């Protein structure tokens, strides 16, 4: 059994020559901890930790949400004693993510991605020797050839395609029943963001993107930690006939502004069948797909601005 902790920051002062903003002070302190092992060990004595077991965080259930308690350094206990002592349970992030507050969801996602990366990079791919983690956990080094390994993220594009009046949503068979989302896909090596969007839209629904506009980005913990880069895109006028790639998608369709606006208003989507079909619903607020769809509903013309 392994219990693993990630440090969060808790330090009141940082020496500097002029008054820096709280954000800059905090950022420089965190950067210092990556390089200064002694400072990092000292911080661990007073730091607050989230606890994980097999990549599942320790959470407490409270009505319709989960709370992610933070702890100071603990004595090593077995999992059942730890759960009893701290009045919580180790729960898969996939199950709990949407019932956490935004700050905890973001920190836990980051911590889990880092833990997963360390777990998968225990050996040097050149020498085959065990790699060694630095105190902060921000890199691993091969002691025999000094190669440094840094945590990596996989870029994924997510695109809401519109023809100006409707938007295109799709679902994979792995999605919960009835849920539709924007088109997503992993970037290929060597591709720009724009090329990845054009290729994914062509591959998945057979359409040619005319214009695209960057919206926002998000770290996403599933399946292995990705940087989701969200864009609005438009297709050429009159070229809206889709050819769904059934190897990648279960279904895709154009939805009207009214249909999408109504689905967006449903805070608690019904997962029950109605008249033999599952009602149409959209990804939860925390997902960048939701933000992208909300932006389009509020300003459907935002995706048809000149490039
Ligand atoms: N936050 C959000 O709002 C949303 C997030 N997403 C996330 O976006 C991710 C990507 O979307 P998805 O449509 O599945 O992606 P793709 O359309 O690229 O198709 C997935 C396929 O790509 C291959 N693949 C898996 N991992 C990689 C990788 N690291 N690099 C290159 N190819 C890979 C696999 O194919 P094979 O097995 O044949 O090798 C996999 O079946 C999903 O994991 C999902 O979690 C999706 C929608 C909304
Ligand atoms: Mg896809």
Please mark out the parts with pLDDT under 50 across 5 or more consecutive residues, or reply none.
Answer: 1-16
* The CATH fourth-level homologous superfamily of the largest domain: Nucleoside Triphosphate Pyrophosphohydrolase
Please estimate the helix content: 25-40%
Secondary structure tally: strands:
14
Order of helices and strands: EHHEEEHEHHEEEEEEHEEEHH
- Number of helix segments? 8
Domain Nudix hydrolase: 151-277
EC number: 3.6.1.22
Cofactor: Mn(2+); Mg(2+)
InterPro entries: NudC-like_C, NUDIX_hydrolase-like_dom_sf, NUDIX_hydrolase_CS, NUDIX_hydrolase_dom, Znr_NADH_PPase
Concise account of the structure shown:
Helices cover 28% and strands 25% of the residues. With 307 residues, it is an alpha+beta fold. NADPH dihydro-nicotinamide-adenine-dinucleotide phosphate (NDP) binds at residues 154, 156, 158, 181, 184-186, 218, 220, 222-223, 226, 228, 248, 283, 287-289.
Verbal overview:
This protein has 307 residues and is α+β, with helices and mostly antiparallel strands. It has 2 domains: 3-100, no CATH class; 154-304, Nucleoside Triphosphate Pyrophosphohydrolase (Alpha-Beta Complex), CATH 3.90.79. Helix content is 28%, strand content 25%. The protein is built from 8 helices and 14 strands. The protein has helices at residues 22-35, 37-46, 79-85, 93-96, 102-120, 193-205, 257-265, 288-298; strands spanning 3-8, 48-53, 56-62, 65-67, 89-90, 132-133, 140-141, 148-149, 154-162, 166-171, 183-186, 209-220, 226-235, 251-256. Helix 1 (22-35) packs across helix 2 and helix 7 (257-265) packs across helix 8 (288-298). The longest helix is centred in the middle third of the chain and has 19 residues, at 102-120. Residues 1-16 have low confidence and may be disordered. The protein binds NADPH dihydro-nicotinamide-adenine-dinucleotide phosphate and magnesium ion. NADPH dihydro-nicotinamide-adenine-dinucleotide phosphate binds next to strand 9, strand 11, strand 12, strand 13 and helix 8.
């Amino acid at each position: 059994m392994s219990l693993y902790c990630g440090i969060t920051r808790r330090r009141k002062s940082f020496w500097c020559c002029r008054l820096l903003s709280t954000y800059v002070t905090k950022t420089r302190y965190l950067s210092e901890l990556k390089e200064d092992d002694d400072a990092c060990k000292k911080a661990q004595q007073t730091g607050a930790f989230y606890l994980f077991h097999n990549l599942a965080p320790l959470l407490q259930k409270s009505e319709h949400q989960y709370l992610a308690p933070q702890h100071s350094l603990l004595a090593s206990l077995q999992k059942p004693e730890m759960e009893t002592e701290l009045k919580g349970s180790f729960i898969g992030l996939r199950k709990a993510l949407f019932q956490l507050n935004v700050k905890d969801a973001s920190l836990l996602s980051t911590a889990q991605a880092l833990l997963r990366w360390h777990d998968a990079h225990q050996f040097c791919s050149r020498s085959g020797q065990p790699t060694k983690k630095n105190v902060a956990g921000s890199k691993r080094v091969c002691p025999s050839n000094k190669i440094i390994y840094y945590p990596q993220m996989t870029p994924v594009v997510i695109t809401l395609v519109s023809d100006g009046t409707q938007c295109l949503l799709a679902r994979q068979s792995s999605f919960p029943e009835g849920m539709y989302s924007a088109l997503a896909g992993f970037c290929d090596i060597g591709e720009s963001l724009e090329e990845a969007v054009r290729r994914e839209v062509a591959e998945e629904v057979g359409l040619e993107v005319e214009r695209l506009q960057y919206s926002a980005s998000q770290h996403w913990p599933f399946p292995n930690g990705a940087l989701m880069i969200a864009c609005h895109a438009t297709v050429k006028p009159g070229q809206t006939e889709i050819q769904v790639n059934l190897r990648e998608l279960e279904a895709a369709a154009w939805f009207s502004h009214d249909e999408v606006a109504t689905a967006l208003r449903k805070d608690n989507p019904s997962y029950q069948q109605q008249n033999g079909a599952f009602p149409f619903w959209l990804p939860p607020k925390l997902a960048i797909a939701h933000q992208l769809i909300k932006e389009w509903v509020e300003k459907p013309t935002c995706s048809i601005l000149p490039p």
